[in-house]
Amino acid sequence: MYALKKKGLRHATKREKRSWLFGILFILPSVAALACMVVYPLILTFLYSVNKVLLPNFDLEFVGASNFMKALGSSQFPTVLKNTLIWTFGSLFLRFVLGFICAMMMETGFRGKTVFRVLTLLPWVMPSIVASNLWRWIYNVDNGILNYVLKQINPSLAINWLGNPSTALVSVIMAYVWTGFPYIMLMLVAGLQGIPKEYTEAAQIDGANSVQVFWHVTLPQLKSFIMILTILEIISGFNSFDLIFTMTGGGPGVSTEILGLNIYRTAFQNYDFGTASAIGVILLLIVLVAFLFYAPSNKKKQA
Amino acid sequence: MKNKWRKLVALSLGICMLASLSACGKSDSEEPKPQEAAGEETPAEGSETGADSKEITTVTLWLGSWWDGEVDWLCKQFAEDNPGYELKIELQPIANYQDNATSAILGGQGPDVLALDTLFLPSMMSQGLLLPLDDFMAEAGFTADMFTKCVYDAGTNEGKQYALPYRFTCSALYYNKTMFDNAQIPYPDGRMELDEFYDICEKLTTDGKYGYGIAASKNDLGNTMTSFAPFLWGAGGDFLTEDLSAGAMTTPEALAGLHAWCDLYNDGLVPEGCINYAITADLFPLAMNGEIAMLPMGDSNIVKIDEFAQQNNFEWGVTLHPGYARAAGWSVTIPSSCKQVEAAEVFIKWFLQPEIISQNNTVLPGVIAAQDMGKWADPIYDIYIEQAEYAIHTPNTPAWSQIQLIVVEELQNALSKAATVEEAAENMNKRIDELLK
To answer: What is the CATH number that goes with domain B172-325+399-436?
Structure first.
């Protein structure tokens, strides 16, 4: 294929052309599947975002940018966007910190490592509806375990975690971090196992301490893993919905409302598919920015 | 030779993959005809009736998951009473019920008969997701006065009837007699004034026990309305102006209602977590544990509390709720995606007969004649029939789902002190007016 690309299809031999055709034939099902499942909904989303969608037949009435104006002009949009960014990048940072700590612990041999591994994987295998209800009970101000423990230490430490606008977002982020860090940990463990022992040994012989080994050897070796994980986590963060919906419903007020939840409400509770699509397009543009950061660095690495 | 075989196998695999992909989607011409879609047992058009040819028409019905115990007898009796038909009940959890129903209808996969909470009706009727039932009603002999009025009215849009109530519910005031005895307070009897109610809550609140419980959860808006609306209406206020064209949350009466409800929270007479609580999921267990003395409670929960009280040695009573309770109910509807309208009508006509609907042990019937038949003749339910006189349905406007979200968000702001009650009321009105403009 590479030779054909270099030579051009016109100058290719019959055998090379046939091989190229076979290649095309093999990727055709995947292309068709992608077109059905990704491209078509994407086109529809763009189409709906500039139209008023009339139910039940999804008739369209062109309205130009009015859906975008409606979405952006809402008095709550700045707060919702701010919440989404805090939610996404805050949880990304904390998941990485927790994931790194656990991955490094996995790499050091200690007794009870297997039990530790199973325990750290539990949050990830738990269905999100169970996890969100579990955390809702933990945070319960009247009978929750967290406040019970805090009251034993000092009664003034017990607060209304989910009912106070200043603590609600941080509380749901902690629950979200807990449900997702094992995935980061697993990926980083895989990355760590791929780093040749000689590298760290050579650095240690040269007198590098643990922090220097981590900073100058381990971290650069994990760069590609970190890049991929960052992109996936950003996408997952922006698309979040179920955990917040169950724990706070976006409240109190709009203190935990994020774009994913906003899209759901606009589409399925207000039946305004046009504005919901416009918010979706805005969300897509924000996620694309993350890709723009990723793509050049990846290209540079490949070169 | 070996290479040739490899290519041949690869080619056949590729074709298989393509074929399986193309099988995933069907063109319009391949779509089953309406009657075929119901199952191969459905009689074809122009053939003998289902009964004569022994072919069966399957009517699909969506009900809430709490109807679990009623499925067997409903299916059996429907088939017995209606030869040629059978009933297939698909139970749905209440979480995302409306969204699931909407998605199913828009995708052309909705049931033949769809049970809907009256709260869901305004937006679904206005979006053309339900079929009008006026002709069917005339043919079947159903009239408006056969149903509990406030629930029946919730199914009316622009003069057309889209929903027929099979369930009526409203909350009466449950109280824990033992807690009243301990506080040496006489039991409540009849509708209290809001001030009197506040005083009683104050007396009952001691040592981690609370006089009352309010629900202000944002993920169960209906529950929050059940909790808040009695105070708003009780003080003489309302959500919207009479012609439903603007918000009415800043009138002195509405402000008094808002204060009456918010003061209970801000003065610590209800649990602190109420800002994020729903009635059934959070407050009901607290009431069962004797941590809450009074709670708005519907007919279905009263039976459960009775069982629990007997096991845990406390006594309880139920009386009229202060103010006006939020009238609610569930109705049967025919979604616009229904492919067997005639069969759906056969089911509705059968289901709403007083003799049939009164046999259910799950919900208080919305058919008036059935309300004193069977289990529902038990005096325990009398209070709910009495409460119906002091029950109001939330405004019947297509924008209601958005309005109640606005109200709940601002209520939470007032409870969490992110805004004063007056600021919250101003914001509600401003946002409602913008929405209705």
So the answer is: 3.40.190.10
Burial of B292 (0-12, 13-18, 19+ CB in 10 A): buried
Q: How many domains does chain A have?
A: 2
Binding-site residues on chain A for chain B (CB distance < 8 A) = 22, 25-26, 28-29, 32-33, 36, 55-56, 58, 75, 136, 140-142, 160, 162-165, 245-246, 248-255, 264-265, 268-271
d(CA A302, CA B22) in angstroms, rounded, equals: 37
Domain limits for position A141: 75-302
Residue A56: inside a domain: no
Those residues whose C-beta lies under 8 Å from the C-beta of residue B63, and which sit 6 or more positions away, are B89, B90, B91, B92, B115
C-beta atoms of B218 and A248 within 8 A: yes
State which H helix or E strand residue A129 sits in. helix A128-139
Lowest mean pLDDT among A89-103, B118-132, B297-311, B390-404: B297-311
Do B275 and A29 count as a contact with CB atoms less than 8 A apart?
Answer: no
Q: Are B416 and A26 within 8 A, CB to CB?
A: no
Instruction: Specify the pLDDT at position B49.
Output: 42
Query: Residue A278: CB partners within 8 Å, gap ≥ 6?
Result: A49, A67, A68, A70, A71
For residue B220, the chain A residues in CB contact (below 8 A) are 249
Residue B402 is encoded by which pair of tokens? 């958005």
CATH of the domain at A229: 1.10.3720.10
> In whole angstroms, what is the distance from residue A77 CA to residue A283 CA?
12
Tokens describing residue A84: 């989404």
Which residue in the block uniquely carries the two structure tokens 């699509």? A277
CATH architecture of the domain covering B55-169+329-383: 3-Layer(aba) Sandwich (3.40)
Token couple for A299: 């290209």
Residues of chain B positioned with their CB less than 8 A from the CB of A249: 217-220
| A161 or B189, higher pLDDT | A161
CB B433 within 8 A of CB B250: no
